[in-house]
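pinned: reference chain
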Amino acid sequence: MAASIEEVAERSGVSPSTVSRALRGVPGIAASTRARVRAAASELGYVANVSGSRLATGRTGTVAVVVPSAARWFFGQVIAGAGSVIRAAGLDMLLYELGDRDGRRKFFSEQSLRGRADAVLVLSLNLEPEEAAQLEALGVPVAVLGPGPAGFATVVVDDFQAALTAVRHLINLGHRNIAHIGIDNSEDVTSGSTRPVARLAGYRTALRDAGLAAPDELLALGDLTVDGGAAAMARLISGPIMPTAVFVASDEMAFGALKVLRSAGLRVPEDVSVVGYDNHELAELLDLTSIDQAVHNQGEAAAQLVLNALSADRGGEPAVATASIPTHLVIRRSTAPPSSPRTPNDNPKEPTS
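pinned: its structure tokens
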């Protein structure tokens, strides 16, 4: 006959409820206690009845992650980070991809999460009051990636300060005509993130503090894609003011900008310096100077916030309301002091034979 949870509890010197929590990886259990319980379970041949324990406790053993688009690199990295923490706690991850306006409306109107998750992570959604109220009504811990409504745990990055750092780097190199390629999220109805606004504000503040102008001709918005960055860069280099440097609000957009510059015969960084944002895994390959915002760590931090809240519900440590993720500038070879002005297609003549 298989051993019972009571026998495991007696062997390890703890209560049956502690055995259950230790074997399910619930936070708030000391590592030594967890090891002792697992050793006793192994010795006795005890196998936990996960579905039964979930029914008994009213818990699903699942953390839901609500994401605008799983296809984007940023969200993929956040999901990976969150998933690693959730799995380590012995819980499952349930992914909800909103996709578009209709998907978002359907998700909230149908209250898709009710009874399906013990906690919720919401990634980069500027929640409407009604949406926040629906999440709050679930009665489970909620963490938001980015600024969130009062009462929700949040994971934040100081996008304003990071943008300030990026543009000051260009200013310190001697650049004066510094352009900005920003994210146009006016049509991105699933997110409505405030991050593009903060990065634009940091760009403008850095220029103002240095006594430099930030004319509209040096600002171009685009979709958060390689093609969006390429189109924005093409508009900038064909405009009335030729930039010697550009701060791009995402690395993926910066990849498109680099392609356009090189296609136009402009050298990077000799003619135009480029700074991106994200420290995408391809940034090092392309020698792109970029702001590292520790994207994977953001997912880990968001998951840990809700696990802390679940632990607090069970008598563990009090939950932490906010996690602030630091950023830093990674300098590579896409930035340098400005050289003599050149124009698109102003290539040096090929040597004659």
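why pinned: Residues 266 and 343 are 7 Å apart (CA to CA). The radius of gyration is 25 Å.
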